Structure prediction request, 123 residues.
Amino acid sequence: MYELKVITNFSAAHQLKNFDGACEGLHGHNWKIEVCVTSDVLNEAEIVVDFRVLKQHVNAVMASLDHKFLNDLEAFKDQNPSSENIARYVAEQLSLLLQAPEIKVSRVTAWESETACATYYPS
Ligand SMILES: [Zn+2]
Prediction:
């Protein structure tokens, strides 16, 4: 199996409900997002997918989050915009944008600080 990874980032504000700690108040993060996609096969150019194409899709998902108050977004209306849920949101949105059935989003990691991250593995 082949795995590609792209790293990107976005800045946004959020507020976590039912959370006893500093993240309960309104605040922002500069999230670093790592996206991994896998494929068992290579295309005729012997790559999984053009990094440029993959980055275009990833950037489209980032644009939906960047400089937003995440709690206001439809995706987080009924759930906290935690790093865990952000990672899942990115994985789900990217899966919709990737047209090739042989390419799967294998994991998305959302770093909310230099030392703390959450990873989502689509089942
Ligand atoms: Zn936070």
